[in-house]
Amino acid sequence: MTVPVRAVSARGLARRYDDVEAVAGVDLDVEPGEVFGFLGPNGAGKSTTIKMLCTLVQPSAGTATVAGYDVVRQRDDVRRTIGLVFQDPTLDGYLTAEQNLRMHAELYGVPKAVVGDRMTDVLGMVGLSDRRRSRVSTYSGGMKRRLEIARGLLHAPRVLFLDEPTVGLDPQTRASIWRYINELRHREDITIFMTTHYMDEAEYCDRIAIIDQGRIVVTDTPEALKASVGKDRVQITTQDDEAAMTALRDRFDVAPVLAEGQVTFAIAGGEGFVPRLFAELGVPIRSVSVSRPSLDDVFMSYTGTTIRDAEAAGGSNQWVRMMARNR
Amino acid sequence: MTTGADRFAHDVRAVRVVWQREMIRFFNDRLRIVTSLIQPVLFLFVLGTGLSTITSGAVHGLNLRTFMYPGALSMAVLFTAMFSAASIVWDREFGFLREMLVAPISRWAIVVGKCLGGATTASLQGVLILALAGIVGVPYSLTLVLTVFGELLLLAFTLTAFGVMTAARITQLQAFMALNQMLLMPLFFLSGALFPLSNLPAWLQVLTRIDPLTYAVDPVRRAVFAHLHVPVAAVHRLNPGVSWDGWRVPTWLELLIVAGMGAAMLGVAILEFRKAD
Ligand SMILES: Nc1ncnc2c1ncn2[C@@H]1O[C@H](COP(=O)(O)OP(=O)(O)OP(=O)(O)O)[C@@H](O)[C@H]1O
Ligand SMILES: [Mg+2]
């Protein structure tokens, strides 16, 4: 074969729960070796999509393949090929890290001869080698998460699904988990499909899909998405904000907003605009900053809300989940 | 891609690892081993001794504790087996069940592994009570230990299968525990663990014959009595066996009834878990 099989491919994938359309027709193509991010607010349908791709939930419409296997007709082949880290923890706290991994190796039929080496490998990768004989119930939340990632990799899957691998963790642990993920793609021949609702994390992905209310609104690289928003964000502080806002509206035809003592507006080619601003605004300027559009701006421009507002409206269950994770 | 034989070998490996996990958890949890012993020991020594004062120490020359001993054995198995089955509800609540459900293995392997694990741990618990035989006047003998162990293993398997079957439906630990409490006590009271199953009023006679546990307790009592030297009159009175309309049900049929029910409930449990996601 000349064309490698797609890591993940979905057409019109949908799932209905009673009267909730959790996923409403999703089309996706993920190439082998990609880190693909699924970005969306609470209740957008991220977990449900992952569960369908992992054969845990039957689609109510549409088709999907993972590593070329159909998720409905070739369940076992799909299951053998994928690694999974769920949103909710699935470790056995009574067992040690090693026992958890050994059990996983047996369930996935890893050849006995390689189990020991693989275990050493994955434990070293997530930095848990020295705690391998401790019971998992004595681990911190971040250590548990890292162990789950290690376990997901133990049987050398071709596609690794991570459902919010970093939710509820401190920034340091989040950063270290991202280090492992980056290292992974270099060391192993693997495709990573992950969900997140941290915008800054989406930046690490090769491509992201933004999903909102069960539908994919856009799929592209983070750079292309940001470029598609086009405009840079300019923030200024002035001696007279009211006068500056009026001047901006009248002379430059932009829509400024005043927030936290700063006047903010979006404009194409922000850096080139700064000299003109100084020359023509007519109000003394104290400071200027220009920033490229962030993924927040991208999300905003495609869905019409910020991800935080979308979550607040959706009745965030984040807190409950964090409590559950810390049990 | 994979042949049926490969597939089966892999599933057997999965059965073993699910069973192993039950073992590790059992031996790690010493507190549970001790607490599960308390009930049968109380039953045997407190209830047994207390009640024997009414009958002035012995019935037909046999100590009441000796009579109750098979009941205590069944009791130890009963509660441990139910605890094992409850662990599947527990696993679901704490997420580990999902790790097993998404693995590329057949669902029957999970259910069979759980049932075998429950059966083994429960009969090991029974062995601890077996060790008390001397204290209640039952002679130690290898054949007795082996026979009783085998019978307890069968009982424990059937009980765990029952528990796993219910656990497929009842996903909340509290509801599961409440249901079992509600079922276990009547089953235990009617099983012949506490009193001989002869000369009973008709309604009680019928209820004891319906109770499946009856057919598990009786073989154990027969095995114990076979090693006692007691007068024939006492055996008739205290070990009358189970009879249907005057016909004494043979041991093999009793064991077959227990095994048959175990197999049937195992089948239902597997079907239930094939549907679960
Ligand atoms: N088992 C279920 N029964 C009924 N409704 C469900 C079920 N699972 C999910 N849903 C509904 O489907 C929708 C999408 O849920 P999903 O878990 O896929 O969201 P998500 O994008 O993963 O959100 P989060 O960021 O909170 O994890 C929600 O409205 C949810 O209530
Ligand atoms: Mg989710």
What does this structure look like?
The complex is a heterodimer of chains A (about 325) and B (about 280). Chain A is of the alpha/beta class and about 325 residues long. Chain A has 13 helices and 14 strands. Chain A has helices at about 45-55, 75-80, 95-105, 110-125, 140-155, 170-185, 200, 220-230, 240-250, 270-280, 295-305, 305-315, 320-325; strands at about 10-15, 20-30, 35-40, 60-65, 70, 80-85, 160-165, 190-195, 205-210, 215-220, 230-240, 255-260, 260-265, 285-290. In chain A, the strands form three sheets. Chain A has a six-stranded mixed β-sheet, sandwiched between helices. In chain A, strands 2-1-4-5 form a four-stranded antiparallel β-sheet, with helices on one face. Chain A has a four-stranded antiparallel β-sheet with strand order 12-13-11-14, with helices on one face. The N and C termini of chain A lie far apart (about 50 Å). With about 280 residues, chain B is an all-alpha fold. Chain B has one domain (about 5-275). Helices cover about 75% and strands about 5% of the residues of chain B. Chain B contains eleven helices and four strands; from the N terminus they run ααββααααααααββα. In chain B, a hairpin with a 2-residue loop joins strand 1 and strand 2. In chain B, helix 2 runs antiparallel to helix 3. Chain B is elongated and about 60 Å long. Chain B starts with a helix and ends with a helix. The model of chain B has no long low-confidence stretch (mean pLDDT about 90). Classes of the chains: A alpha/beta (about 325), B mainly alpha (about 280). Adenosine-5'-triphosphate binds near residues 20, 22 and 87 of chain A.
